């Protein structure tokens, strides 16, 4: 599968998550303070909650429901109650557009 355009970089708000869906795969996009775009699975592994409704702090995305924070770089949970990681997807920026391939999962 090839990468799919999900939005323009200019559509993203720094330190806020945005939910997109590619081929039925929910993904949370985050533009961090350094200008890097991250894409992680949008479903918290603890409570089946949308992570894009959570809070961005540094390089983490925190689930609003139970407080588990996930690394935007590795997908690993940094605290309980979650103990399973979420997938992290490769992000490509072309001509100001964000492209994601939901089958291209980064290896931590």
From TrEMBL:
The lineage of its organism: Bacteria, Bacillati, Actinomycetota, Actinomycetes, Micrococcales. Keywords: 2Fe-2S, Iron, Iron-sulfur, Metal-binding. This is Non-heme iron oxygenase ferredoxin subunit. The keyword Transferase does not apply. The keyword Iron-sulfur applies. Gene3D superfamilies: Rieske [2Fe-2S] iron-sulphur domain. It comes from Microbacterium sediminis. One of its GO terms (molecular function) is metal ion binding.
